[in-house]
Inverse folding.
């Protein structure tokens, strides 16, 4: 304990009855009991305990006090089974006020969940006193400690890489920091330690890790902040399997610490299969509703809209009753917004012959064989709704993947933890129609699949078929992280830069130091990074990563507590060699 207290509030138990203890904390609640007595709930991060104090004390919510008293059993009929300390109380208390407090800006009990987030963030120091936030902070710390233990045990060395760097190629915008010593020059804040961890491999570190803060200037979402924390790792003389094993061990250690259960064997799927079956490269496999292939059924169709490269369907089991016509119209509009030309829905009803019949505005354009085929493939049963999309493979899978989530996705805290490795990502995401240049799916240091190297000489269609040795870890439909085997040979790297249209000058200006380093002996290496905020949020069943970050930014990227971002005054700007111009537009 400390010189001020002998026990924590939440730790007082029957065993302590008869002993005199000193507790410190905040007044969570005060209830008058007649003229002379008051009940005080005293709170610290371990919990709450009831103290019986002299009613004359002036004590208000959130005042900081030290209470010294004797632990005694609560009188019969006043035991509170909701509280861990509910069988005891502190009697004969002396109370010392250590600090008074203004009334809190919002109630700290269960009503806090309904408080506007900006208000919570503005007074985050008060918000953090809530048991949920304490639980989240402590779980996060335990998760990070477990990661460190696991990585240390696996022989990884923790290395800190710099924050003030030249730009890193992760594909987002950089946050930049002007240099005072070199006016007109800027540092970038790291989007990831990618290039430094590769330099560590050239430097013989062999196995590197870092609990790294990364900064990316992108639009914020529930699972994204400007700054976030990754477990960042890299291994030498290692390939994909080694990385998957090491990362699985680290994630398993976290889950064991937080949930007291292991993650077991993590299933694997290729990118192509993931997109084909779930319409997503980060499939939520907590539920089925898989995309079913129907293209061949319509190879000779008379239905114009179904003369398409890819036709797939999903089955909403038993969905008919709860799905009104206007909901179907809304879903159709939503699918159009997602890029589909339209959405075909079919209600499965009982047929005259005792079988099923598909009821849909477009059923009349389809042959009996086509309808029967659809019902059969999708396993249609009376009361279901079937949804079909016809387009190219990318769009059909994309739209049905989103529809699947819309119709079937369980809430964050349900359905357990379903991890999935997605491997064999394509090397290129797209080929620019105008320039013919491929767009990399990961960063430009990602190693292509050995078997696909020949395709690099091919046309756009061939390029899109090149698989990379890149892999993602997915949990319940969230991308936890990604990594790849890196290119460590200068000639192959040069070829990729050529393909991407990165000129020798540009390559040398942007990553010349890495290419130089490779000339001095680079081991084959591979790595990975996963988001600690996301993992902790999912383990706690939180929808939003802000709940597991002590001082997050709002959705619009501001900090209501400190007022960041804020303007610089004129002398500071001058010092940095900066002049303010009116914002564009
Ligand atoms: N640097 C990558 C990222 O932050 C991860 C990796 O390839 O190791 O996404």
């Amino acid at each position: 304990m400390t010189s001020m207290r002998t026990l924590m509030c939440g730790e007082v138990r029957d065993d302590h009855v008869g002993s005199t203890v000193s507790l410190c904390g905040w007044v969570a609640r005060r209830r008058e009991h007649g003229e002379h007595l008051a009940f005080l709930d005293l709170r610290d991060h371990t919990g709450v305990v009831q103290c019986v104090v002299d009613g004359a004390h002036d004590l208000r919510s959130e005042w900081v006090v030290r209470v010294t008293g004797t632990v005694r059993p609560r009188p019969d009929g006043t035991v509170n089974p909701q509280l861990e300390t509910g069988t005891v109380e502190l009697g004969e208390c002396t109370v010392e006020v250590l600090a008074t407090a203004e009334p809190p800006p919002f109630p700290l009990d269960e009503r806090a969940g309904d408080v506007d987030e900006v208000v919570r963030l503005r007074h985050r120091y008060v918000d953090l006193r809530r048991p949920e936030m304490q639980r989240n902070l402590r779980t996060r710390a335990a998760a990070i400690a477990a990661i460190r233990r696991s990585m240390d045990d696996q022989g990884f060395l923790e290395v800190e890489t710099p924050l003030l760097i030249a730009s890193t190629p992760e594909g987002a915008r950089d946050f930049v920091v002007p240099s005072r010593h070199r006016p007109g020059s800027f540092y970038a804040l790291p989007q990831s330690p990618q290039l430094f961890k590769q330099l560590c491999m050239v430097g013989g570190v062999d196995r590197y890790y870092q609990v790294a803060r990364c900064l990316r200037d992108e639009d914020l979402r529930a699972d994204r902040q400007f700054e976030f924390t990754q477990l960042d790792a890299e291994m030498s003389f290692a390939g994909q399997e080694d990385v998957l094993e090491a990362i699985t061990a680290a994630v398993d250690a976290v889950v064991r610490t937080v949930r007291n259960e292991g993650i077991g064997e993590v299933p694997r799927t290729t990118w192509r299969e993931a997109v084909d079956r779930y319409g997503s490269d980060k499939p939520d496999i907590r539920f089925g509703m898989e995309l079913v292939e129907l293209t061949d059924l319509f190879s000779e169709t008379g239905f114009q809209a179904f003369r398409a490269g890819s036709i797939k369907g999903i089955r909403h089991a038993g969905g008919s009753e709860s799905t009104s016509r206007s909901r179907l119209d809304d879903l159709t509009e939503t699918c159009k917004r997602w890029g589909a030309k339209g959405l075909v829905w079919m209600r499965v009803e009982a047929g005259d012959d005792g079988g099923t019949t598909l009821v849909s505005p477009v059923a009349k354009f389809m042959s009996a064989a086509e309808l029967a085929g659809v019902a059969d493939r999708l396993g249609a049963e009376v009361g279901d709704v079937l949804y079909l999309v016809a387009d190219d493979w990318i769009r059909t899978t994309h739209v049905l993947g989103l529809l699947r989530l819309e119709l079937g996705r369980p809430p964050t805290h349900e359905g357990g933890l379903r991890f999935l490795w997605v491997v064999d990502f394509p090397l290129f995401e797209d080929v620019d129609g105008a320039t013919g240049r491929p767009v990399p799916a990961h960063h430009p240091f990602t190693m292509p699949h050995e078997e696909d190297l020949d395709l690099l000489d091919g046309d756009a269609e061939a390029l899109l078929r090149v698989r990379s040795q890149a892999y993602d870890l997915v949990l319940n439909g969230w991308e936890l992280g990604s990594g790849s085997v890196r290119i460590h040979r200068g000639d192959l790297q040069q070829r990729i830069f050529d393909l991407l249209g990165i000129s020798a000058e540009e390559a040398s200006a942007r990553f010349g130091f890495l290419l130089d380093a490779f000339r001095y002996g680079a081991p084959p290496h591979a790595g990975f990074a996963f988001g600690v905020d996301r993992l902790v949020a999912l383990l706690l069943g939180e929808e939003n990563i802000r709940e597991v970050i002590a001082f997050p930014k709002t959705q619009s990227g501001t900090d209501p507590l400190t007022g960041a971002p804020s303007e610089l005054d004129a002398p500071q700007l001058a010092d940095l060699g900066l002049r303010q111009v009116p914002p564009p537009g």
